[in-house]
Amino acid sequence: MTGMRPTRTIRQTVRCSCALPIMRGLLALLISLPADAGSGEKQDTKLGWHGSAELAIAWLGGNSEARTTSIAGSLRRLWPQSQLAVELGGTLTDAALTSRTAVGTSQQYELREETRQEKTAEFYYARARYDYRFNTSLFTFGGMDWLNNRFAGIRSRYLLVLGAGQSWLDEEELRIRTDAGFTYTFQDDVIKNPFVSSTFPGLRFSLDSGGQLTESTQFTTLFIADWNVEELADVRLHWTSSLPVAISGVLSLKPTLQLLWRNRPSLTEVGLEAPDGIPTGEKVLVPLQKLDTKFIVALVAEF
């Protein structure tokens, strides 16, 4: 039927009152861990500080103009039975949008151009994680993530996590480990959803694998699934896969594919028009896309 718009029903959830005390207890346990707590790294890994920096730049000029810059960095501190890892980075894309107008007649006219710069993608993150290894396979961990992704409707999101995991295989050719934990999320959306809580407890499962494909090529894959325990239909999936290729003793070329999916995405405002196409001046809330995809080829320097 013409002139009709589909409606979307958003169900309000009931908060779990017992989750916050549990998270406080888990965080207290994390704080009480010894300072030399550990990770799943092998014993022959060189102890001390390790780091890397990544840079990727793309530029398009001519009839259209766009620029993408992506930077990232990581820093790790290894102890005999512990690891502290800090990562941060961001991606920014802006484009020059040109509008052209011809003034005059079809035989004689003046061409006028107006160009404005506009951001088309913006994504920043920071995370820290601390691991403690009880033996060669069993470990516990705690950490915090921060995310800013305005084009996905997220102004700021903090996530605390505490859990334990198992290292199933730790060889040079192949490394596989899994972990699970409790989370608590604090989210500030660009457009506030009045029917969904901005703070909620959750559960997380992750699979981390990697290894050496050839003498100069490695692979890494990280899969994370987050559930909102107040509303189990609210699921976030994170998949990142990289294929670093060494080009010298310090430098490598690193193509990375990242997929971010959420079953209940954030909302955005859309102008409302009447069936005849005339703007009403009102706005409605509609969900954004569930899937975000990013592919970057970066130059990496390790130190």
Task: Give a quick precis of the structure.
The chain has 303 residues and is mainly beta.
Molecular structure report:
- With 303 residues, this protein is mainly β.
- It has one domain (38-302): Outer membrane phospholipase (ompla), Chain C.
- It has 1 helix and 15 strands, in the order αβββββββββββββββ.
- The strands form 2 sheets. The protein has a 12-stranded antiparallel barrel with strand order 1-2-3-4-5-6-7-8-9-10-12-15.
- Strand 5 (138-149) and strand 6 form a beta hairpin.
- The longest helix is centred in the N-terminal third of the chain and has 13 residues, at 19-31.
- It is flat.
- The relative contact order is 0.14.
- Mean pLDDT is 85; it is low at 1-44.
CATH architecture: Beta Barrel
Under CATH, the homologous superfamily reads Nucleoside-specific channel-forming protein, Tsx-like
Helix content: under 10%
State the domain count: 1
Q: Give the distance, in angstroms, between the N- and C-terminal Cα atoms.
A: 63 Å
Strand order of the largest sheet: 1-2-3-4-5-6-7-8-9-10-12-15
Quick one: CATH class? Answer: Mainly Beta
Give the strand tally. Answer: 15
| Rounded radius of gyration (Å) | 24 Å
Anisotropy-based shape: flat
Q: Mind describing the biggest β-sheet? A: 12 strands, antiparallel, barrel
Per DSSP, the total helix count is 1
Average residue-wise pLDDT: 85
Strand content is over 45%
